Amino acid sequence: MLRCPLQLVRLRLPVRQLSDLTTKFTGLGSFSNLNYDQLQSSLRTDSSQCEQFWKLIGEQQLNWMQPFHTVSDCDLKSAKIAWYLGGKLNASANCIDRHLATRADQTALIWEQDEPGNQVYITYKQLHAEVCRIASLLLQSGLQAGDTAVLYMPTGPPVVYCMLACARIGVAHSVVFAGFSAEALAARIQDVGAKVVITTDQAIRGGKTVELKRTVDAAVKSCPMVERVFVSTRTGASVPMGSIDVPLEKNAAACSADCAAEPMDSEQPLFVLYTSGSTGKPKGLVHSTAGYLVYTSLTHQHVFDYRPGQDIFGCVADVGWITGHSYVVYGPLANGGTTLLFESTPAYPDVGRYWETAERLGLTHIYLSPTYDLSRLRVLGCVGEPLNHEAWEWYHRWVGGGHRDIADTWWQTETGGVCIAPRPSAEGAPILPAMPMRPFYGLEPVLMDPATGAEVTESPAEGHLCMRRPWPGMARSIWGDHKRFAETYYSQFPGLYFTGDGASRDAQGFLHITGRVDDVINVTGHRLGTAEIEDALDSHPAVSETAVIGYPHKLKGEAVYAFVILKDGVSIDRLGDLRRELKRRVRDRIAAYAVPEKLLFTDGLPKTRSGKIMRRILKRIAAEDYDSIGDISTLADPSVVEALKQHHDLYQ
Ligand code: WT7
């Protein structure tokens, strides 16, 4: 049974000697020839070894325009994180220019368009020219190093060009997933203070067109700081063009295909990426240039055992999420790899799409979030749908067939890259199904007891997952709110990074993730804060109070369940309309994937005497797990629970 959000499926597993795996760090000074356990224990017990390790890795992974003088300057107690100080480099030059001598004609990007069979190949030489032209255009438009630009574009070559063009001239990009509503987009443009927005006329996904430019038009109405909107052409449909709008490709074509890569400080923000937290508005996590690139390139190489020039890496994530940033764009390109840009959906034109694509393009790796499609595949396989027979075979052979081929990887927007994964040390040890198992080199996960605040040292055990040692790829701040950054991640367990997840450690010390311990939920791999959805629902004039929780859903992983108390005097005849209006409101304020799957009107919510909603109880009700509701005597009104159970049953 597969239950983890992100997994690597290794297609066409190469025959490798076990000895290869023990000598991955050949040429790395005293770390050469150490196996995983030896390396980890030397890094764990000796800080100067750790420093030396990341120094050699930093020098080895990247091209520096000016060498760094200090490996790290971190103090997790005060949320201070800095790596490779004194160094200067450019991320775009590291992802493109340094490969030109040896890989100019190698494919850098394979664009798998929405309609199967329309793949487009882009070489490193072409990538260089396109990125330079757009970088030149951005410079001409007045953008300069230190500015920010928002990208609201579908997964495809143009968004990669724009990300790297921004990096080339020192502009931090903030990619906003092209499924977000105009309101959500506007909030992000305002928060990050973007002068420039880059979008696409229309996106095409799953055979449907999505009006991106029109959404941007609606968003920028409330964003006076936006001076320019560049519009990339995907469908060529005529979209309204106003005075600040400029066609991207037409203007870039007239610009120079040579644009110098600006030397940037190691700690210069490379990008800002918004993600949901348990409270408040989404947070713009800030990632650095050097540390992020060191870490994503290293993890891409080791966690996925990636061999540039031979392997075709198929991470099917949208570029709008961290997985797209780290393992579609920066990791693979920094390593001189060939990377897939997947424009479609897992179920278009049918649920065999991933496997059909993998076969047609000859992918060697597929990195995906299987909660949705694989469960579908399993069902279809069982009922023997002939159309999907091939897909089922793929699944059976590559996914179900041998657990050695699957790597469950744990990480977060905040961590920049994979932190826990079975891969770096597969030295003959079995890879256990559905658990990420081992920390990446130099990382030190710890389990903390939330009640006592003390570390849980024995095994097996369960606790809140924290990280003791800093690593180069971790987020540096929340854009414009370092205090919130420190409070969210570094205050609960002083001196440690708190992930927000729970984990268990088995007797052998292997880690298994048990899920969020806060009010963050994960719907088809998209992270949502329940408070965001509550805010959207609460804004409706008929609503008095709401409580939103996530509940297990067999296709989506988790789905949204909203409990809604209406204001006095709202007519019961309006319930049908209200249900539609409330769903609409969530769609308009956030995105379609945030819309509650279930919405229950109720007269009361389970609250403590001090007025705190007991979400634990709501979760049990939603999951119909009535037996473990537990003690309800501390509730202000225990009868609420019985009423909710009955309504819930009725609602089914
Ligand atoms: C949350 C982070 C995976 C990076 C992209 C998503 C959950 C992540 C696993 C895993 C179980 C996982 C956690 C985490 N998660 N990986 N292998 N097994 N849960 O990044 O959107 O920031 O979400 O995804 O709950 O906190 P994200």
UniProtKB/TrEMBL annotation:
EC nos: 6.2.1.1
GO cellular component terms, A-Z: mitochondrion
Single GO MF annotation: acetate-CoA ligase activity
GO biological-process terms attached to the record: acetyl-CoA biosynthetic process from acetate
Keyword Repeat: no
Keywords: ATP-binding, Ligase, Nucleotide-binding
Reactions catalysed according to its record: acetate + ATP + CoA = acetyl-CoA + AMP + diphosphate
Enzyme class: ligase
InterPro entries per UniProt: Ac_CoA_lig, ACAS_N, AMP-bd_C, AMP-bd_C_sf, AMP-binding_CS, AMP-dep_synth/lig_dom, ANL_N_sf
Limits of the Acetyl-coenzyme A synthetase N-terminal domain: 49-95
Repressor in keyword set: no
Matching PROSITE patterns: AMP_BINDING
Stretches assigned to the AMP-dependent synthetase/ligase domain: 97-477
Superkingdom, taxonomy of origin: Eukaryota
Family in the record: Belongs to the ATP-dependent AMP-binding enzyme family.
PANTHER family recorded: ACETYL-COENZYME A SYNTHETASE (PTHR24095), ACETYL-COENZYME A SYNTHETASE 1 (PTHR24095:SF14)
Protein's recorded name: Acetyl-coenzyme A synthetase
